[in-house]
Write a structure and sequence with these properties.
Elements lengths: L1 H4 L5 H14 L16 H10 L5 H6 L18 H7 L8 H9 L9 H16 L1 H10 L1 H6 L1 H4 L7 H8 L7 H14 L9 H12 L11 H19 L10 H13 L8 H6 L1 H7 L9 H8 L8 H16 L5 H6 L1 H6 L10 H4 L2 H13 L6 H16 L5 H6 L1 H7 L8 H11 L9 H14 L9 H14 L9 H8 L8 H14 L7 H15 L18 H14 L7 H6 L1 H7 L9 H8 L6 H16 L5 H6 L1 H13 L6 H8 L8 H14 L7 H14 L6 H17 L9 H14 L7 H6 L1 H7 L16 H16 L5 H6 L1 H7 L8 H7 L8 H16 L5 H6 L3 H5 L1 H5 L10 H11 L5 H16 L5 H14 L1 H6 L5 H8 L7 H16 L5 H6 L1 H7 L9 H11 L7 H31 L4 E6 L6 E6 L19 E2 H7 L12 H5 L1
Antiparallel strand pairs: 1-2, 1-3
Helix pairs in contact: 2-3, 3-8, 11-12, 13-15, 14-19, 23-28, 24-28, 27-31, 29-31, 32-33, 39-40, 42-44, 43-44, 55-56, 55-60, 57-60, 64-65
Length: 1143
């Protein structure tokens, strides 16, 4: 054994030899009532060392005289055999060496009872003999001058030696310190040798049955057992265990004092020494004795498998005493002595001793200084780290947890004692992860107090269970952070629910963060950055006082950054927000019990059911959502899902330490980018839907329009209603040409953004969504939101809402989310100078540009199709034809409904009047544009598409599939006019022919073929009213004019078509006349001569068939056709244009 292998040196004799010359010539100061004569010093020292007190036998019998100065313990009959058997021969001549040898013997080694008795009397004489006290006075001269309380102690009762032992930590004299250290080993071998201990604790020893105190039953090991028994009783009392005995205060103080005095050398704790001798050899063989080093070494190995149970229990008792009084730890008390004094952590007369002496009080006081940025010595911080780790490893060291969490431990956490597993089990139960109910409030408070005392938030290594579980994650994800840095925990939280996180680490981390989140001061970085804000705004107490929640109010920038970091982390788990969990426990169970599989689902669920929540829960969810709207990075899971979009489109916003709603706005604007994945899109849409419930949930909108809302839309809460209120106000002010807009400029700008976002998804318009919910389920259940196209099959109420929405979008294209999104780049390219309300017009003008994006071109076409279904959806046409529509198309208006489109009837009506040249100038210009656009794409003519859909499929399928938008489908229908079976379709094609004769631009195929001839022969002719067409027809008949072959061929084709159209429409007209008993005639005129032939037709009253002379296949033009087609009738005689004459 190491204790037995140490070289035994006659220390006191050495001191005597060393000090003798000096003492012989040095006058001795007086100490109390003791004045040793100078001439007797040598004899006193020698007698005290070699022959302390009377012969033990004489003491026992009370009659024998003192032995000679050569008396040896080894020569006494009672101990001779035991000394010879147990002690090395070189120690036999030194009584102290023999004493140390015998009292440090192994527990299973027996020595004679008489020898035990002899040894005890010998030690008693050593501590009470006035001669020996005189030696102490001589050796400790300077010390006695400093320790007045020891100098005044009564002699002969052991008080002096006990006093010096108690103050040995303050002794600086080397010889005195060695002398007292040696005496300490003698005193602590028996509780009865400790000054006053027997008198103060006799009653408690008897009641607790801690061992025999009769003289004849003394045993070295049983004496240590008595102290250990009393120490365990102190622990049981602190833990309020069942049938715990309440020890008297003076005895309790003596027990703690004994533990304190034995703190530097584990040999002095006799019970622990004998219990742990083998373990000391196993784990701490090379650890030097003194200053509590062996204790600390054994503490560090307490949970090793090879540690004996008896030693582990003895160490636990020792640790529990340290938890009650930090001075029981020599190294901690010594290292932190100056810091305790500097930061006023010393005993306060106003505080009960039980509180200010506790380890937790010391840790809290010094941690408070550290968190405030004060300097605590490195040695003290090291000691604090060790004991904070000790508290986290073994829950039993905290009597409050043992007392208040007993039921939870027995029910949920039995058998998990080691390495902090029981503590983490209790944390897991407190979080509610076990599904077996919450812990008792007292247990919860005890756990919170322990976490504050241990302060693992400052250094994750304090939590051994967390450290071991997260080691691999730290090495990979957080290796850039210095070991032990508080940011390690923050780094782990940032990687929660990522691929780098392991399950065990995730559990331990959430268990710890659950308690850290309930006291904002337990995050050291947050506390350091925000302590001044908290004090200024909330008058919060010190770090180590009451547990406060995160204070509200205007924060400094540094503090706000940290608060946002905390909010980002806590949003990962609803249980990390104590207010949310506390106020929403009922609602979580009612609405969200099935939303616990994926992180973040519970908060989303609460947001979805915001209107259904109880008031207290709704308030906290609303506040959190309001914060989230300002900084969407609070939703860490959403940010992770949106990482590709952020990196490519929003990285500037994401890099800002403080967000003001810009990142969310960027994500909404880029929702349809190719980098956008389903998770990100769903998350962004979810938050948009939540924002609809309260305008405060849109941070930028709230900031820009808060004053306007209070002034113009008071008592309105839902965002959609607020937007409608403000938009209506803006529109009314605009229509009334108000001098000053009631809505502020900054609010109007943000209002545009909100209106645009609301048009993206039908769910963002709650009123519209409710009206169309059944239609969505019936017609669009498998169609992503924002892509439905089923307008004709909608219910009346839904159709009405959709029509009104389209009407608003056409009046203000900026509200057309799809158009603005798809054509974003094209708008920048072509329409930067256009007014917002004319963006669609600008895009239409540039639709056929070679630089036009195909997707944007397709979107423009969709909007043109929509506009042509109803003049009300074309605000430019509506304004231009304001007078013409009621004048020519009133019959159609009389049958119109606000809930349905007119399917192009009004526009078709205006087209016919355009051919008749009866429209006003502004209306004619707009109809010409529509004719030109629809001539290129048959889908822009609703009537043609409706009546000719089957014919197009039968006759022009190839042209329709090409979708080239060059008028090929229309040309196909014209070429196949004779094959068209449906009369309605034939009528529409005939109308196209009529329209094309009025304006060559309406016939894109002919216009393309004759573009060169128009430039050469008709450049001076203004377009419209058939003027350019007449010019080309005259050029065709002039043999001096040579037209381009393709132009000539196309013109001949058109003449044939017009002839057939004239015949068809004349027959229809004559049938009408015959039904009315009217005479009809046709007159044919030839371009080449002035002759004309007429044929009169009179209806037969009994017949049904009417025959008509075939017109000449080329060159005939009917007068009736001229009238019917509304075009210019060519004169029977040839008329040459000025351009041709000039040639």
């Amino acid at each position: 054994m190491a204790a037995c292998k140490r070289m035994q040196q006659p220390l006191l004799l050495s001191i005597f030899v060393f000090l003798l010359p000096a003492l012989a010539f040095k006058p001795q100061p007086a100490f109390g009532n003791v004045h040793p004569p100078a001439g007797a010093v040598h004899q006193q020292l020698k007698a005290a060392i070699l022959n302390p007190g009377s012969n033990p036998a004489a003491v026992s019998s009370g009659s024998q005289s003192r032995r000679s100065s050569g008396w040896k313990l080894a020569e006494e009959q009672a101990c001779r055999d035991d000394v010879t058997r147990l002690c090395p021969k070189h120690t036999w001549t030194n009584n102290l060496s023999v004493l140390e040898c015998l009292q440090d013997k192994r527990e299973d080694t027996e020595i004679a009872t008489d020898c035990n008795h002899l040894l005890w009397n010998y030690k008693l004489n050593l501590t009470t003999d006035p001669k020996f006290e005189s030696v102490a006075l001589e050796v400790c001269t300077s010390t006695m001058l400093e320790l007045k309380e020891c100098a005044d102690e009564e002699r002969g009762k052991g008080y002096l030696m006990s006093c010096l032992v108690e103050h040995r930590a303050n002794i600086t004299e080397r010889q005195c310190h060695q002398f007292i250290t040696k005496m300490t080993t003698i005193i602590f071998s028996d509780y009865q040798l400790i000054c006053g201990f027997m008198e103060k604790c006799k009653e408690d020893i008897d009641l607790l049955q801690c061992g025999s105190i009769t003289v004849r039953e003394k045993d070295l090991h049983s004496q240590g057992e008595v102290i250990a028994c009393l120490e365990r009783a102190v622990v049981r009392e602190a833990e309020q265990q069942e049938k715990a005995h309440q020890i008297k205060d003076e005895c309790k103080k003596s027990i703690m004092r004994v533990a304190e005095l034995s703190a530097d050398d584990f040999h002095l704790d006799r019970y622990l020494y004998f219990s742990c001798r083998d373990d000391r050899e196993r784990f701490c063989e090379n650890t030097q004795v003194g200053e509590g080093r062996v204790y600390k070494c054994l503490f560090n190995h307490k949970f090793e498998e090879a540690m004996s149970e008896k030693c582990r229990n003895a160490l636990t008792t020792r640790q529990k005493l340290i938890a009650q009084d930090y001075k029981v730890s020599y190294s901690l008390a010594k290292a932190c002595k100056a810091d305790l004094r500097r930061y006023r952590c010393n005993p306060d007369s106003n505080l009960p001793r039980a509180r200010e002496a506790r380890l937790s009080y010391l840790l809290l006081c010094l941690e408070s200084a550290t968190h405030r940025g004060r300097l605590v010595s490195g040695d003290c911080q090291g000691e604090m780290l060790d004991y904070r780790r000790m508290l986290m490893e073994d829950f039993s060291l905290s009597p409050e947890i043992v007392l208040h969490c007993r039921t939870e431990i027995e029910s949920h956490c039995s058998g998990l004692h080691r390495k902090g597993r029981t503590l983490h089990c209790l944390m897991r139960v407190a979080r509610g992860d076990t599904g077996k109910g919450a812990v008792d409030t007292l247990c919860q408070n005890a756990l919170q107090t322990l976490i504050q005392s241990a302060d693992p938030g400052a250094d994750y290594r304090i939590d051994r269970a967390l450290n071991e579980a997260c080691e691999s994650v730290i090495q990979t994800a957080c290796k850039h952070i210095r070991n032990g840095d508080p940011m390690i925990l923050s780094c782990l939280m940032e990687h929660l629910y990522t691929e780098k996180m392991v399950q065990d680490c995730e559990h331990r981390l959430l268990e710890l963060q659950y308690f850290i989140s309930r006291d904002w001061k337990l995050d050291p970085i947050l506390y350091r950055k925000c302590q001044n804000d908290a004090s200024r705004l909330c008058f919060t107490p010190g770090w180590n006082e009451s547990s406060e929640l995160m204070p509200p109010g205007a924060l400094t920038r540094d503090c706000k950054v940290e608060v946002q970091r905390i909010l980002h982390q806590r949003a990962l788990d609803v249980k990390l927000d104590p207010e949310l969990q506390k106020r929403c426990m009922t609602d979580l169970g009612k609405w969200c019990s099935e939303k616990t599989d994926t992180a973040g689902q519970e908060l989303e669920c609460l947001q979805d059911h915001l209107e259904d929540l109880i008031v207290a829960c709704r308030e906290v969810v609303g506040n959190l959502t309001e914060l989230e709207s300002e900084d969407i990075q609070i939703d860490a899971l959403l940010i992770r899902a949106c990482e590709p979009v952020i990196q490519n489109h929003c990285h500037d916003m994401a890099d800002n330490q403080i967000d003001t709603g810009n990142l969310l706005e960027c994500l909404v604007q880029n929702k349809h980018q190719r980098e956008m994945n389903e998770k990100c899109a769903v998350g962004v849409t979810h938050f948009q839907l939540v924002q609809m419930k309260d305008f405060r949930f849109s941070y930028k909108f709230k900031i820009a329009c808060k004053e306007d809302v209070l002034k113009l839309c008071a008592n309105i809460k839902k965002k959609v209603d607020v937007v409608i209120c403000l938009s209506t106000t803006v529109r009314n002010d605009t229509l009334q040409d108000a001098k000053d807009q009631r809505v502020s400029l900054k609010c109007r700008k943000q209002l545009r953004v909100e209106e645009l976002e609301m048009s993206e998804d039908i769910r963002l318009e709650p009123e519209l969504h409710d009206a169309c919910k059944k239609d969505i389920n019936k017609l669009c259940s498998s169609v992503p939101y924002g892509n439905a196209q089923n307008k004709k099959q909608l219910s009346q109420v839904c159709h009405h809402k959709i029509f009104k929405l389209q009407e608003n979008e056409m009046m203000d294209p900026e509200l057309d989310y799809q158009l603005m999104r798809v054509c974003k780049q094209m708008i920048k390219r072509f329409c930067t100078e256009s007014d917002a309300k004319n963006i669609l017009q600008c895009l239409k003008l540039n639709k056929n540009s070679e630089l036009m994006d195909p997707k944007c071109k397709q979107m423009i076409t969709k909007r043109q199709i929509t506009q042509n279904t109803d003049y009300r959806l074309n605000p430019v046409l509506r304004k231009a034809c304001k007078a013409d529509i009621p004048k020519f198309c009133q019959g159609i208006l009389n049958t119109a409904s606000d809930a349905s489109e007119l399917e192009g009837q009004v526009i078709s009506c205006l087209k016919l009047k355009y051919a008749d040249q009866r429209l006003s100038g502004s209306c004619e210009d707009q109809i010409r544009v529509i004719l030109q656009e629809s001539a290129l794409d048959y889908r822009l003519d609703p009537q043609l598409q409706a009546h000719c859909n089957n014919e197009i499929t039968r006759l022009c399928a190839e042209e329709a599939a090409a979708q080239e938008q060059t008028g090929q489908v229309e040309e196909c229908l014209k070429n196949n006019l004779l094959k068209i079976k449906q009369e309605e379709c034939k009528t529409e094609v005939l109308n196209m022919l009529k329209e094309s004769k009025a304006d060559i631009f309406v016939d894109p195929v002919l216009h393309t073929a004759c573009a060169l001839d128009l430039k050469h022969h008709c450049a001076a002719i203004n377009p419209g009213r058939g003027r350019q067409m007449s010019c080309l027809m005259e050029a065709l008949q002039d043999k001096q004019v040579r037209l381009q072959p393709e132009c000539k061929r196309r013109l001949q084709d058109r003449i044939d078509m017009w002839s057939y159209a004239a015949k068809s429409q004349m027959v229809d007209l004559c049938i009408l006349y015959m039904l009315r008993d009217v005479t009809c005639f046709t007159g044919s005129f030839s371009w080449g001569n002035g002759g004309a032939s007429r044929r009169f037709l009179r209806p037969r009253r009994t017949g049904h068939d009417v025959t008509i002379k075939e017109l000449h296949p080329v060159g005939d033009s009917s007068v009736c056709v001229c009238a019917l087609l509304g075009g210019p009738c060519v004169r029977p005689t040839k008329r040459v244009t000025r351009e041709l004459k000039d040639r």
